[in-house]
Amino acid sequence: MTTYKEIRGTNIEVLASDPSNPVAGQVWYNSTSNVVKGNSGPLVGAWATGNSLGTARYQLSGPGIQTASLAFGGDGGSGSPYPAAVESYNGTNWTEVNNLNSPRWGGGSSGTQTAALMFGGFVSPSDKAKTELWNGTNWTEVNDLTTGRQQISGCGTSTSAICAGFFPTSTSPSVQTWNGTNWTNSPSTNTQRLRVGCAGTKPSALIYGGGPDGAPGTFAGTESWNDSAWTEVADLNTGRNQMASSGASNTSALAAGGTPGVSAVTEEWSFTGGTVTFTDS
Asked: 95 and 216, same structural domain?
């Protein structure tokens, strides 16, 4: 077996603190934290153009992963009717599947490509409370949100979801949770906001960023949910709203893009050993 010394020409260093500029492949032992660490070198990636949606729109919703996702609802712009179209993505192509029962934009979503939830949204002149459940083939109307709302975020599954961060923020409560049958008013976040990032499920979630209602500015605040209360934890490095967000729980999340301006900033959330940090990616 080849040893580290044979590869690098030196033994693993013992250091009291991490080196300021580690080189690719360097490994060291941090004697303060008692952790072996290493530098894998820069992560290289790129965005590539994929096949277009069948129906152009914005303010749409959709859960899933890169190779198995949904896109539904939204606003077609220029006075066109709100699309009810639902499209399914297989990693290469978008395919039209059965429409929503109630077209709208600015709603929230949770779940997967084959088991999803769509809730809330807006159709002039009012915010909507409708919730629809997707079984991989059809949409079925289920129990409504307790109050209609738009510009919301959702996270979780089709049976355990959170709806948070909505317009108008003056309406209370700001959070509703779904147990697979009903929505329940839950304790509000400490800071009322709309267009937030959301990661996790009903028993273990994270809300971050967002913006104030009817005023310029953004929030950097992050709050963690333990199924009974929201606790303020470490802020985003860059406050913003309308970002893409994802994550399986309140211990691992991603925030990408957003406003003000047009941001490309990406941050990763980690929770280890009682310490929480947002790290620029």
From this structure: no
pLDDT digits (tens, 9 = 90+) for 220-271: 989 988 888 888 988 888 888 877 777 777 777 878 777 777 777 778 887 6
Alpha-carbon gap, residue 203 to 224, rounded angstroms:
10
Q: Which residue has the tokens 């949409």?
A: 139
DSSP string, 22-43: PPTT-EEEETTTTEEEE-----
Give CA–CA dist 240/263, Å, rounded. Answer: 9
* 47 located within any domain: no
Query: 277 pLDDT exceeds 50?
Result: no
Boundaries of domain holding 31? 4-38
The span from the CA of 176 to the CA of 173, in Å, is 7
Q: Is residue 43 part of a domain?
A: no
- 199 in any annotated domain: yes
Q: Could you give the CA distance from residue 245 to residue 68 in angstroms, rounded to a whole number?
A: 17
The string of pLDDT tens digits covering residues 11-34 is: 788 888 888 777 777 788 888 877
Question: 150 in helix, strand or coil?
Answer: strand
Distant-in-sequence, close-in-space partners of 47: CB < 8 Å, separation ≥ 6: none
Q: Which H helix or E strand runs over 8? A: helix 4-8
CA dist 188 and 175 (Å) reads: 5
Q: Are 62 and 70 in contact (CB under 8 A)?
A: yes
Structure tokens at 245: 């967000």
d(CA 269, CA 222): 10
For residue 113 the two structure tokens come to 């490509």
Tens of pLDDT along 68-88? 888 888 888 877 778 889 999
Q: Report CA 138 to chain centroid distance, whole Å.
A: 25
Indicate the number of domains in the chain: 3
Which strand (E) or helix (H) includes residue 4?
helix 4-8
